[in-house]
Design goal:
The protein has 13 helices and eight strands. It is α/β, with parallel strands linked by helices and 313 residues long. The strands form two sheets. It has a six-stranded parallel beta sheet with strand order 4-3-5-2-7-8. It has a two-stranded parallel ribbon with strand order 1-6.
């Protein structure tokens, strides 16, 4: 059953989603749900561009500081949490506004995923400790062996974390990941009013460069240092994020600071390109595209106007 009643504001990193979402929320009496796979981690504030209390401008936000950096937070878990937030926002008579750049998180709401058997935290942790010992190539080999229909031998696996998940699910359930994905999906379906922020590639890259510089000035290196002192390494699910993994290499003496910062800029640009590719292929046909070079209040008013028209207000 389709369940309308939400707005989704999507776009690549540094396109201005946070500021625009806050402006929309103020106009529509809304609350913001972060659709970001890194902002869920506690202590990872600067490098994930988590908005400060001042930037939130009194607008309620959800999806921040849910787990520690060494915990895995899946798209399925996000969907369960997001539906709880959405229902509570509706109960308060307000508008849910989903904003972020993690496409597979949003897709978990709009295209519910398979329902795999639950596992205890101890069981997951035991498998995780074993798999962390092996390089990506070995994990890809095992994923291909355990899930021949998954396309792993053709390079379509999707990275170390996904390969590890495929191995974990096969070991835990006795069935490969591709089998579970073919099962009838369960869950509610969200059909949000969707907006995509667009801006020229050169403008996007300049914004990314400025954002990285601003993060460094705000104390990103000190943030990564504190997390490292608490025992979090690049093996932690949260710490393999752009900005953190490069600075961990610097702290380990592998690269100088200037090189690490340039690596962050380059990695963020690559991530933005992947986001743009996802947006080109995964959006609903009725998604509306907006010029993100316009002032945030003007973009927000355009979004609010479409919502009011649809809701008959």
């Amino acid at each position: 059953m389709a369940e309308p009643g939400a707005i989704a504001i999507l776009g690549p990193t540094a396109s201005g989603k946070t500021a625009i979402a806050v402006e929309v929320a103020k106009r529509l009496d809304g609350e913001v749900i972060s659709v970001d796979s890194r902002q869920v981690y506690r202590g990872m504030d600067i490098g994930t561009a988590k908005p400060s209390a001042a930037e939130r401008q009194g607008v309620p936000h959800h999806g921040f500081d849910l787990v520690d950096p060494d915990e895995r937070y899946s798209a399925g878990r996000f969907a369960r949490d997001a539906w709880r937030w959405i229902d509570a926002i509706h109960a308060r008579g307000r508008v849910p506004i989903l904003a972020g750049g993690t496409g597979f998180f949003l897709r978990a709401l709009t295209h519910p995923m398979f329902d795999e058997p639950d596992a205890s935290a101890a069981e997951r942790e035991a498998i995780k400790r074993v798999l962390e010992r092996f390089p990506p190539e070995q994990l890809f080999h095992w994923a291909a062996a355990l899930d021949p229909a998954g396309g792993w031998d053709q390079g379509r696996g999707g990275g170390r974390q996904r390969a590890a998940r495929a191995v974990e699910i096969a070991l835990r359930t006795g069935r490969p990941l591709s089998w579970w994905q073919r099962q009838e999906p369960r869950g509610r379906v969200l059909r949000p009013l969707t907006f995509v922020l667009e801006l020229p590639r050169d403008v996007l890259y300049e914004r990314i460069n400025r954002r990285v510089d601003a993060m460094m000035e705000a104390g990103l290196l000190e943030e990564v240092t504190r997390l490292r002192e608490r025992g979090y390494t690049s093996a932690a699910p949260g710490m393999n994020a752009t900005g953190y993994i490069e600075l961990l290499r610097h702290l380990d003496g592998d690269v100088d600071l200037e090189t690490a910062v340039e690596q962050i800029r380059a990695a963020t640009r690559r991530y933005a390109r992947r986001q743009l590719t996802w947006l080109r292929h995964q959006l609903p046909p009725d998604a509306r595209r907006l010029d993100a070079t316009a002032p945030p209040d003007r973009v927000a008013e355009a979004i609010a106007a479409v919502w009011r028209e649809r809701e008959g207000k």
